[in-house]
Amino acid sequence: MNRLVTIFVAGFIALMLLSSTVFVVDQRRFAIVFALGEVREVIAEPGLHFKLPPPFQNVIYLDKRVLTLDTPDADRFITAEKKNILVDAFVKWRIVEPRLYYVSFSGDERAAANRMSQIIKAALNDEITKRTVRQVISGERGAVMQAVHNKVVAEAKQIGVGIVDVRLKRVDYIEQINNSVYDRMRAERVRVANELRSTGSAESEKIRADADRQRTVILAEAFRDAEKIKGEGDAKASAIYADSFGKNPEFYKFYRSLEAYRASFKAHGDVMVIDSNSEFFKYFRNPGSK
User: Fold this and answer.
1) Rounded CA gap, 87 and 104, in Å?
2) Does the 67-173 domain belong in CATH 3.40.30.10?
3) Most buried by CB count within 10 Å: which residue of 4, 103, 168, 275?
4) pTM score, two decimals?
5) What is the pLDDT of residues 18-33, one digit of tens each?
6) Mean pLDDT, the chain, whole residue set
């Protein structure tokens, strides 16, 4: 019985020793093998690997995936014109030199993130302080990002980190500058609106004056043409009358006398005091005379 127990204990110890010498490296991780506290080997290939049992050799793992450092709050920077702006950025990074990375941070990812935040903030500060607000926000934003990316890549390389991408999520004014910008934008829009109204009013007056001028010209030309036509008609009527009455002068005299009688006795209350033997009543006295 004691022999079986001894064999069982020996087998268990051997199994424990064997399991402590075998480790698996995942494809998403680096493995760093330490021998008595010193880095012995860095393993990047996934699979089954062997080492000496502790305390002779130990293994720690580092993440080889692309990580994201996203600042929780926007940082304040001063531009070349001494104005404060808020900048919110993020960076995509990964470990490219596991040995150097471990020596720099002892494998602490939080310490690495803090160091990356400092590097990004310093690079942004260097670039923003050389530019105006307008240049940072729109005019030279691409140039700012490229310069920041180059500086961050150079700094991160010294701590075993590779930079995949650096981006600005938000660039905004602080509240006081926002108010002044909105006021300036509002004043500019009011100025443009007033200018458009003034231009529209001037164009309206111009169109109205031109329409009045055209109306006057059209009426004058129409009156001129009407008078011309009327004159031509009167001339033709006079010619016709002259031609007709010229053939019988006595009939013309008789017709004119009838016109005079009609005009004189148009109203019933009209009273005329005239000698009945006057020339006016010639055709009343002898209507059949020639």
Assistant:
1) 28
2) no
3) 168
4) 0.52
5) 667 888 888 888 898 8
6) 80
